[in-house]
Write a structure and sequence with these properties.
Structural class: alpha/beta
Strand order of the largest sheet: 6-5-4-10-22
Number of domains: 3
Number of helices: 12
CATH superfamily of the largest domain: FAD/NAD(P)-binding domain
Shape: globular
CATH architecture of the largest domain: 3-Layer(bba) Sandwich
Number of strands: 29
Distance between the termini: 70 Å
Strand content: 25-35%
Helix content: 10-25%
CATH class of the largest domain: Alpha Beta
Length: 465
């Protein structure tokens, strides 16, 4: 029964927790709450929004639920507070961690240079200080858009006013016989890398299936750790899907110079072994001995939750320039989204941290009532050995290219053009060239001056139209 002195309040069930007692549910003391015994469930109710309670600024309070545990989720929560949003924020992540960064997983965390604390996007005390609740190790299993509720794997049913899907992506699985043998790894989560690290022992033979950025970053770490590394790439060159022959050749030379064996136009057909992986069987029957394998053949967006809720999905969750889905109460950000990009005049689904971060900031601004559109130029980066590669735009679509600097010095940049319009750039250990390129993409640029190291980049930038 509702207490008599609170009977005028309209209630809304915002959570159901199966085991913890009331003082461990994580709700603020200022919330109206009590327990009603229904079998083993504790039902937590709140009067925050439905009763029209107002925040300190006088705004009507809301509950925003964020689904995800990566860059997009963590940044959105932080940006909501930066945008002066004062309502409830609840982040629900399937993994048993607070929101964390994925790029270090294939680099510093894999090598052991970083501990877990340096992988976290922000420390736990940040969320506590900003009154952001994080529920880790809980999977959102379904969304009820009409009732504005999500159902969770622990039995909780949580109400929301606005919902942000930051569900990210997962590795594409290689459908091959023997693919479930111990010793075969994919790399996307902290648990994935922990398992790989256990197998990283000097002298062991590792076969990396896929010559993209993830595969090559793992190859660099494995070589430095003393493993014998072979990279299999089904295309005729590594990095073919993401960059030009110039960059492919440069990185192949770098890796082979470090002792990595690169086998192009080679497909992994199956995995050999009884109790554990012993080899990778290639097309044609050749068997490459392997103590472990890492498969890096791309990722696919996690859209199943959105699809089941009836949201439009097409190579990602379809959102507009404000990061809204076709349900006005549901937004999405990060690797899982398909969004319009006015710079390139088409829709994109990007797999990059900068996209996840910036899109989440835009999403947070809109959720907080500060309208903003997402119109960033895509950029990416990769760390291999002592080389930092920074990329902007899409180099594979260019008509021509010019180089600035000398690749033999391991410090140079390649600029890509469509006519006189700069469309992309790859910069190796050349941060200044990269920063200028980000400002030049989409503009008419004198390619001759851009290629001349004797011409000040500031002059090139000022002359661009």
């Amino acid at each position: 029964m509702v207490p008599a002195n609170q009977a005028h309040v309209t209630l809304r069930v915002i959570d159901v927790v199966h085991r913890p007692p009331p003082h461990e549910t994580g709700y603020r003391d200022s919330e109206l709450k009590w327990a009603m015994s229904r079998s083993s469930a504790l039902v937590v109710v709140s009067a925050v929004t439905m009763a029209g309670e107002r925040t300190r600024s006088g705004r009507i309070a809301m509950t925003i639920v964020i689904v995800g545990g990566g860059h997009a989720a963590g940044q959105a929560a932080a940006s909501l507070r930066q945008e002066k949003y004062e309502g409830e924020i609840l982040v629900i992540g399937e993994e048993p961690h607070i929101p964390y960064q994925r790029p270090p997983l294939s680099k510093q965390y894999l090598s052991g240079e970083y501990g877990l604390d340096r992988v976290h996007l922000r420390p736990a005390r940040f969320y506590e200080s900003k009154d952001i609740r994080v529920r880790s190790g809980v999977r959102v299993e379904s969304i009820d858009p009409d009732r504005r509720r999500v159902a969770c794997s622990d039995g909780a049913e949580i109400g929301y006013d606005k919902l942000l899907l930051a569900t990210g992506a997962r590795p594409r699985r290689l459908a091959a016989p023997g693919g479930d043998l111990p010793g075969i790894h994919y790399l996307r989560t902290i648990a994935d890398v922990d398992a790989i690290r256990e197998d990283f022992q000097p002298g062991r033979r590792i076969v990396i299936v896929g010559g993209g950025y993830i595969g090559l970053e793992v190859a660099a770490i494995a070589t430095k750790a003393g493993l014998l590394v072979t990279v299999l790439e089904m295309e005729d060159r590594i990095l073919k899907r993401v960059t030009t022959p110039t960059m492919s050749a440069f990185y192949e030379d770098i890796h082979t110079g470090q002792g990595v064996e690169i086998r192009t136009e080679m497909r992994a057909e199956s995995f050999a072994g009884s109790d554990r992986l012993s080899g990778v069987v290639c097309a044609g029957g050749e068997v490459l001995p392997a103590d472990l394998a890492v498969v890096g053949i791309g990722i696919q967006p996690n859209v199943e939750l959105a699809e089941a809720a009836g949201l439009e999905c097409n190579n990602g969750i379809v959102v507009d320039e404000f990061t809204r889905t076709d349900d006005p109460n549901i937004f999405a950000a990060g690797d899982c989204t398909n969004h319009p990009n006015p710079v390139f005049g088409r829709r994109l689904r990007l797999e990059s941290v900068p996209n996840a971060m910036e899109q989440s900031r835009v999403c947070a601004a809109n959720l907080a009532g500060n309208p903003k559109t997402y119109a960033n130029v895509p950029w990416f980066w990769s760390d291999q050995y002592d080389l930092k590669l920074q990329m902007v735009g899409f180099s594979t679509e260019a008509e021509r290219q010019v180089e600035r600097g000398d690749p033999t010095t391991r410090r140079f940049a390649v600029f890509y053009f469509d006519g006189d319009i700069l469309t992309a750039a790859d910069a190796v250990n050349s941060a200044r060239e990269f920063m200028v390129a980000r400002q030049l993409v989409g503009k008419r640029v004198d390619s001759g001056k851009l290629a001349d190291p004797g011409v000040d980049l500031r002059a090139v930038l000022q002359a661009a139209t």
